[in-house]
Design goal:
Mannitol-specific EII, Chain A, about 150 residues, globular, alpha/beta, six-stranded mixed β-sheet
Length: about 150
């Protein structure tokens, strides 16, 4: 899966304004709504927060991939946020999160959702890339890093 096919440049927040898990998730859902990508913002927010209550999506190494599936979105969509300071996210390694990739997809389309999760996870295994992304000072810089990484 090519992330830049689902991540629009306008859906990148760098830096994030939120300072805790719930406010960052709400900020990224708001970003998707502002870009006209959601049918029902509140339903998407609820789906992501309910999923987050099941188990934290802070996967460690400064990365979180909050996600949810619901009927309030017509296709797989993604928003990304960068927090230079780090956010407490109940991560598996108990470390702050700096890169948050939020996914929302229709309930009946699991394949692309899982592919996107796997692609993000693989991309973040590259420590040099991850460090550059974490230090991106603008949405444009963050998006360019992701695009360049995909075209390696």
């Amino acid at each position: 899966m090519i992330l830049t096919q689902i991540l629009q440049p306008t859906c990148v927040k760098a830096p994030l304004k939120g300072t805790d898990k719930d406010s960052v998730i709400a900020e990224l859902v708001d970003t998707l709504a502002e870009c006209g990508l959601l049918v029902d913002k509140d339903a998407v927010l609820e789906a992501v927060l309910v999923r987050e209550q099941t188990r934290s999506t802070g996967i460690g190494s400064g990365i979180a991939i909050p996600h949810g599936k619901c009927a309030a979105v017509n296709e797989l969509v993604m928003a990304m946020g960068i927090s230079p300071e780090g956010i407490e996210f109940d991560s598996v390694d108990s470390k702050p999160v700096h890169i948050v990739a939020l996914l929302a997809s229709p309930s009946d389309r699991t394949g692309p959702h899982i592919q996107a999760l796997a692609t993000i996870s693989r991309m973040m295994l590259d420590d040099e890339f991850k460090a550059k992304l974490q230090n991106a000072t603008s949405p444009e810089a963050a998006y360019e890093l992701i695009s360049a990484k995909e075209h390696e």
